[in-house]
Amino acid sequence: MLDIPEQFLTLNTPRLTLRKLAIADAEEIFAYARDPQLTTYTLWEPHRSIDDTYDYLNNNVFELYRSGQGMDWGIILKENGKLIGTCGLYAKPIHQRAELGYALSRDYWGQGLMTEAVKAAIAFGFHVMRSQRIQGCCAAENIGSARVLEKSGMQFEGVLRNYIVKKDQPWDVKMYAITALPNKEMT
Ligand SMILES: CC(C)(COP(=O)(O)OP(=O)(O)OC[C@H]1O[C@@H](n2cnc3c(N)ncnc32)[C@H](O)[C@@H]1OP(=O)(O)O)[C@@H](O)C(=O)NCCC(=O)NCCS
Known about the structure:
Elements: E1 11-12, E2 16-20, H1 26-33, H2 50-67, E3 70-77, E4 82-92, E5 97-104, H3 113-127, E6 133-139, H4 143-151, E7 155-166, E8 169-179
Parallel strand pairs: 5-6
Antiparallel strand pairs: 1-2, 2-3, 3-4, 4-5, 6-8, 7-8
Helix pairs in contact: 1-2
This protein binds coenzyme A.
Coenzyme A (COA) binds near residues 102, 138 and 147.
């Protein structure tokens, strides 16, 4: 689906560069992905060793690059060159729809950085991937993630009850979305 020249895959915002991930990023990812507090509301568990990070890169990220069904960016803070998180867009090509996913090192929470990254990803989704709809969902209790989606211009569409099960516990999930064209009036 995505057959886009490499140079268009790198995005720039005032404070961040979003770029493709490489195996050499494993240590910086592991440094934050091992944090159990960060994974409270993620679908994945904390990385127990750097081997989990290699598995994540090889089986999720590089597989996504190979399939062309979306993008996963490393988030680089320009001021120090560090990789501080990831942000991705996962496509359902048949419906021209994409879904956001993201995580940021706890050291950098609360500075508006993920909102900055997500806005760039949304622009890429509409202008490069040609999506008609970009959605993002989060556990109903994940207030920070819901705020990121709201601040990025998404509309709250409702609560999907018991939508996710993690460790045998069903979670209610809030669904947010933004569309390429104004929403059609419901008839
Ligand atoms: C969710 C996450 C990406 C937010 O990143 P961030 O860079 O801190 O986000 P931003 O600073 O752009 O915005 C966060 C907003 O949530 C608010 N917020 C965060 N936690 C909050 C809480 N417990 N109560 C109220 N507001 C909260 C912040 O004040 C900020 O809003 P504001 O700008 O109106 O003040 C980050 O916390 C994270 O990586 N969490 C772990 C992984 C995760 O949950 N991923 C999403 C899965 S759906």
